[in-house]
Amino acid sequence: MQEDYTYVVLADDDEDDRLFFVEAFEELKIQTRVDIYKDGVALMDALNVPDSVLPNILFLDLNMPKKSGLECLIEIKSNNRFKDIAIAIYSTSASEEDIENTFVQGANIYIKKPSDFKILKKILSDVVTINWQYHTNGLDKDNFLLRL
Amino acid sequence: MKIFIKFDFTQFCSTILDEKLDELNIKYRMLNFGEIEFLEPVPPDKLKAFDAILDTYGIEKIENQKVILVQKIKDTLIDMVFNTNDAINVKSSVYLSDKLGHSYGYLSNLFSEVTYTSIENFIILQRIEYAKSLITNTGLSLTEIAFRLQYSSVAHLSTQFKNTTGITPTAFQRIIAKRRELKNNKD
């Protein structure tokens, strides 16, 4: 095994959603480290620090003040340093337009935020497990599309 | 102009290993499944040099016995999924335990413990990933892809694709095409 944990980052302006997210990961059997940011600007500032440790999976809320999830996504996809980060859109929106557009812009995963904590745990566990499969089996990340 | 290429990873890796071991003057014998037997003791500096060379090719020496066996399971399964030419007529569980000489129960528990997924899910993932690469890189129709991957019908392939990825093969194809278009416009 290359690493002993999966490094996960979330950018979300909703405090409750952030809380649920961190709590869900605490209850998973897969080892993870979770960092959170309250908006897109704070996230991008942290990612853009040279030599910073990059997340394995980045969860982006779409509607955030200052800088939206879509703006972050486009910025991240235009920087080659971030090419190995799997991007998960984590949104209350389930509009087909948002889903297809973010996939086309390079997102790997689209998650409609569930209202049930058990379902959230299952979804996050699936995401980390499948990402792990891509990582350890050398699968083609360009073909990594997952909608949950 | 665009061309598509297909790799034989096993041959690719053995060729590199042959060349590099010969270069270092190490006497060896290739066994199955990425096993190499050194026929005489190898001095530590040579072994270190060999590890360094492997590293540049993204090849890694596996130290842990459990990880080795899991890698063998994966290699066997991948071989089973991709070598669709000579159809394997037995169930994957029988095929695996025959080939690796352990009971399926033991192999399947070990596999889940190390990889966080089951053998069944691993096979499905591999087949779906193969289907994806055929969708994006060849002009094959879904019917032809289903046939090649030994699905009983297109519907079966589409259902498993949707269950695994959350999107339909057609949506997948459309998204990848749009991504390429977007990238071409940027370049």
UniProtKB/TrEMBL annotation, chain A:
SUPFAM superfamilies documented for this protein: CheY-like (SSF52172)
Residue positions where 4-aspartylphosphate is found in the record: D61
Biological processes per GO annotation: phosphorelay signal transduction system
Key words of the record: Phosphoprotein
Membrane-spanning ranges: none
Endpoints of the signal sequence: none
Domain Response regulatory positions: 7-128
Keyword Phosphoprotein: yes
Domain of life (superkingdom): Bacteria
Entries under InterPro entries matching the protein: CheY-like_superfamily, Sig_transdc_resp-reg_receiver, TCS_response_regulator
Protein name: Response regulator
Organism: Gelidibacter salicanalis
Source organism phylogeny: Bacteria, Pseudomonadati, Bacteroidota, Flavobacteriia, Flavobacteriales
From TrEMBL, chain B:
Entry-linked SUPFAM superfamilies: Homeodomain-like
Matching Pfam families: HTH_18
Keywords: DNA-binding, Transcription, Transcription regulation
Residues annotated as domain HTH araC/xylS-type: 96-175
GO molecular function: DNA-binding transcription factor activity; sequence-specific DNA binding
Name of the molecule in the record: Helix-turn-helix transcriptional regulator
